Amino acid sequence: MFILKIKLLCFVDIKYIFERLYKRSFTVEGGYKLKNEQMKLWTLPFILMFIVNALNGISSYMVNPLMPDFLVAKGVAFEVTGVISSLLSWVALVIRPFSGAMSDKLNKKKLMFYSYLAMVLCMVGYSLVRDLPMVILVRIIHGIAFAISGTTSMAFATSSIPKNRIAEGISYLGIAMLIGTMIGPQFGASIATLYGIEQIFTVAAILCIICLAIIWFLPYKYVSISKNSQKNKINFSDFFAKELLIYVVLIGLFSFGNGIISYYLVNFGKVRGIENIALFFTVNSIAMLVMKPFVGKLQDAKGIKIILYPAFAIYAIGMIILANARSLFLVLISAVFKAMGQGNGTPAIQAEAVKKLGIERNGVAISTCLIGQDIGNAIGPIFASYIVASTNYETMFLLYSAMLVFGIIGYYFYNKKAY
Questions:
Q1: What are the tens digits of pLDDT across the range 328-352?
Q2: Could you say which DSSP state residue 235 is in?
Q3: How confident is the model at residue 225 (pLDDT cuts 50, 70, 90)?
Q4: What domains does the chain contain, in order, with CATH numbers?
Q5: Contacts for 33 with CB less than 8 Å, ≥ 6 apart
Q6: What confidence category does residue 234 fall into, taking pLDDT thresholds of 50, 70 and 90?
Q7: Long-range contacts from 47-50, C-beta under 8 angstroms, 24+ separation
């Protein structure tokens, strides 16, 4: 009992130190209220949320690519592995609007904590379940937790970013998720090869537990909404920000390409006889890693237009290059163009959405953008499969390039009407 008391006191002291460090920079009352807008970006809360987002990305990208193999090992027919694997994305799409509303109206810290706790339980559940209905149930719960944790983590993190550095801050948060895409798949594959596929869930659960520990130490004073408050009323705008509709369409166009390339690039390489075409993803990630911070600073200084017009144009050119590529060199050039287009355009839209709605509605701003991303990711492969079956890969990439050009034109007329 004496030892237990000492450990408890040490734990409380550590939490107290974290709280004191926070209070040097923040007044925490229903979120983080900045003492002045010129504060540093890399404060303790932002650093911790960067780590949480990176660890969450690694755990997700460890598990998701190997889900079909895991299901086959469980005795699930290969024909239905795609449907079960994609359940997480479809459930997340349904939950997104609610996650934004909950983030704006409820205690963000508790939402994060319980959603990450649910993900820990899901990771454990994957390795314990034996029959198909239970696998589907765990996958559905994982989708709900994934949607809530993603939205709330971003909303919590953006609450600690100075208003005049929102784009730069969101760019860095994008780098955190990019770390997940770069490390997660290979890390998961190595663990599966060395220790067995079920051990990836053990490691993913440990990463989520680390996130839980970090979230526990985040000081956050939630100010409850009074019963008579206007904020307590539920409106459609709490679930979907219609004023961001143009950005939902634009971010959906960017994500549309992710769905196409992720699913069909390797097969495209086989048809064209291009070896090592998977290097596209490595080059694309490295290019985004280099450019994101500079682009965020540029947007904060000059506005979103200076980012979006070139992003759509460069991405469209990149798809034309890819459509005509018959060598690895041209494929890698298109990877850099994709990074300059989609890699810069997506966080730019997210930052503009948060600026437009303000910190008090950053939850619905982020969830509305994520709805666009989810739709694009879901529809892209369907479009690609239909076009490739009817024509060929070149036509598919050229049609997508044309869609991006229409995106530029649509955005131009939107701005002309708005201003």
A1: 999 999 999 999 998 888 888 988 8
A2: -
A3: low
A4: 26-32+41-223 (1.20.1250.20), 240-418 (1.20.1250.20)
A5: 26, 27
A6: low
A7: 48/214, 48/217, 48/218, 49/153, 49/156, 49/157, 49/160, 49/173, 50/157, 50/172, 50/173, 50/176
